[in-house]
């Protein structure tokens, strides 16, 4: 077994242990059809998504219990009935939020909390770069749309909570069911491949194992031939 194969197999075993420990497994994502929750607040930072006092846990399970904790609950731990996540009219695995979502600190726990709560897609007109990367690394799809389209979605789902959005990752589109409203969105090609196949970074590397081994074997043959040629011409 060559060095690449050994590295891949050893690290996959380590990754499986980490996955079991954290209780997290990437799921395949191609299409999603769901109702959505409107969070009409701008500049939502990561400390609002998951307050710092809940960051001590090492297992990502359970972070959803405290997502938006200081907005969902009053100081006496009673539910804040005015907060949208506590409104029984709204439900779904898509969160539609105001501009500049995920700003503030770089804590990956924010993506953990949103995912653990049950969200699979976050829609906004702008995402902080670090949050966007953390979300994609944890199987949470951040969809950036224009301010005008965001306004349309928020208006539709606020007035009509039963309205469903459809996200098509393969074609990179999001649409409002029963209307002509739709938009395309951008996503990094590598992250798109990982989401569609349910890969984390090591899974992706493993998917290329055969290609890597073929390249290594071909490289060895080339190096061997170059060495032989060098010896031949060196003896002339």
Task: Summarize the structure in words.
This protein has 236 residues and is of the alpha/beta class. Helix content is 43%, strand content 14%. The chain is built from 9 helices and 7 strands; from the N terminus they run H-E-H-H-E-H-E-H-E-H-E-E-E-H-H-H. It has helices at residues 3-22, 46-49, 69-72, 109-117, 129-137, 147-159, 189-197, 201-207, 209-234, and strands at residues 31-39, 94-97, 121-124, 141-144, 164-168, 173-176, 182-184. A 7-stranded mixed β-sheet has the order 4-3-2-1-5-6-7. Helix 5 (129-137) links the parallel strand 3 (121-124) and strand 4 (141-144). It is globular, with a radius of gyration of 23 Å. It starts with a helix and ends with a helix. Mean pLDDT is 87; it is low at 14-23.
Please supply descriptive tags for the structure shown above.
236 residues, alpha/beta, 7-stranded mixed beta sheet
**Terminal CA distance:** 37 Å
Series of secondary-structure elements, N-terminal to C-terminal:
HEHHEHEHEHEEEHHH
Task: Please compute the radius of gyration using only Cα atoms.
Answer: 23 Å
* Biggest sheet: strand arrangement: 4-3-2-1-5-6-7
Helical/strand content category:
alpha/beta
Average pLDDT taken over every residue: 87
Q: What are the low-pLDDT stretches, counting only 5+ consecutive residues below 50?
A: 14-23
Shape type = globular
Tell me the helix content. Answer: 40-55%
- How large is the share of residues in beta strands? 5-15%
- The total of helices stands at 9
| Oligomeric state, counting identical vs distinct chains | single chain
Number of strands: 7
Q: What can be said about the biggest beta sheet?
A: 7 strands, mixed
